[in-house]
Amino acid sequence: MRVLVFLFLLVVCSVPGAALAQGSIETLETTPAGEAATDETAEPLPPPPCGTQPMTIARMAWPSAAILAEVHSRLLTAYYQCNVMLNEGDLAATGSSMGATGQPAVAPEMWIARIADIWNAAMQGQKVRQAGVSYVDPVFEGWFVPDYAAEQWPEVTTIEGLKARAADFAEVPGTARGKFISCPLDWGCAIVNRNLLRAYGLDQSFDIVEPANRFEMDTLIAEAVGRKQPILFYYWQPNAILSQFAFRPVALAAYNREAFQCMGRATCAAPSPTGFAPDPVITAVAEWVYLDAPQVAVYFSRAHMPFAEMNLMLQQLGEPGATVETVADRFIAERSEIWRPWVGLPAIP
Hints:
This protein has helices at residues 2-14, 18-27, 63-80, 91-101, 116-124, 147-152, 159-164, 188-199, 214-226, 241-244, 257-263, 287-292, 294-302, 307-317, 324-334, 336-339; strands at 55-60, 84-89, 106-111, 128-133, 141-146, 178-181, 206-209, 232-236, 247-249, 281-286. By secondary structure, it is an alpha/beta fold. Helix 3 (63-80) links the parallel strand 1 (55-60) and strand 2.
């Protein structure tokens, strides 16, 4: 019997790893129930890319701002795993709320010159930042001519060319004066356009037409285009009509702040050539986004929409059955070369 016991112990002790396995079991430490094991060398998980607060986006009532809100909502959801909420709002209420509470988190199309006091107070309270500009182009107003006129007389996209070709813009052939379609008489741009015509020496070459309202303004332009009549007209962007019909901008002088201030006065004695004033239209982002969701802040610093793209989307919005949501979906599906750089991807897939 003693011999058998001795042989048994000799076999067990000679099995490779047997003693090691026994020692490993003896030294295992157990983790109390409900407590996860920790590794002092493990790095902490990165913060979620969309932060820890609700990512609310102001969806303003006018179409371009509503489209921007829907586009950004889709991209933030797809590429930053954001749980986006859209809040209906207007400039004043949104600016006040962002300055007081940091919500909504984003306002994609803030015309801050219209709410200067509210915006300045929010900035002074360090609740908001300007992430970037909403659009690639800084100047929203201008003078335009139809593309067929510019193709026939390329010089008419300049002031000197308009002077030389004014008779060709006449509504009645053979008369010496062309037609300039301005904005309604009770709009501030009507005074500006009158003074600009004087500043450029075109007031003796073009008769001003000031429609009664926006509908009549669009109708006059559409009727002239339908007749292939050369016209000079004032308009602003983003706007569907500039995509619906093909137009070329007229090159004006560089913006001069002092000269343009005079343009807004009916009593401007000696108007000087200038371009239209740039309008600060920005993407406003709550301060907490920069701290809690810096990747989202970087996204908005890159997300600048070209006028031509928004003009096209506004035109699409007028198609039968179209909604802001379907237009945003179409932009995401068809125009990736525009938005891919916003999310940090190459422009070409």
